[in-house]
UniProtKB/TrEMBL annotation:
It is found in: Membrane. This is G-protein coupled receptors family 1 profile domain-containing protein. One of its GO terms (cellular component) is membrane. Residues 1-160 form the G-protein coupled receptors family 1 profile domain. The keyword Membrane applies.
Amino acid sequence: MWRTVKIQSCLVIVIWVVCILYSLPLLLTGQITYSVNNQICQIPLRLSLPMIYVTVIIYMIPNSGILGFYIKLTRYVHQISLRTVGNHTLFHARRELKLVKRTFILSNTLIVLGLPYMIFVLMSFFTPPPKYHFRIAYICADISVLLVVIIGYCFTPNIKTIIRKKFTRSTPVEPMTIRFTAATYGRTITAN
């Protein structure tokens, strides 16, 4: 049902609307300021309602949803495995579980490598953050994006085999075959 073009289009529109509505309160209230030390426009790191709002919208809600969906789908596949159901249903459930597992791993990679930024955010609730805190956190964010791309390549079987072939390319050795025919038995080969 959710795989139809109409549903997918609606989901894309909903995502765009949520992204636009999420940033509007921050823009309209003037919470985003220019940080001279980090040379970037961002919400000042301090204990404030906008900082908590951003943390909840960006980190808490999506990751809680992914975790809940993963747990629910894992239980569903486990229950289906115990019952007698068609192989087709079990195959699709396991395939969807594999997809959600990959999403869960990618999400956790981003969470773990986003920890330095979250530490700076939590530090800012009690003390001022270090002078170049965002530059330090941005290095971790760049590394996390790189790792997500690498993990994505590892999860895609076709790309995985192509990369393996590129790095383990060897020249094929063809066996030499000698064919004897009736005409070669009677001849004598002499060297000059």
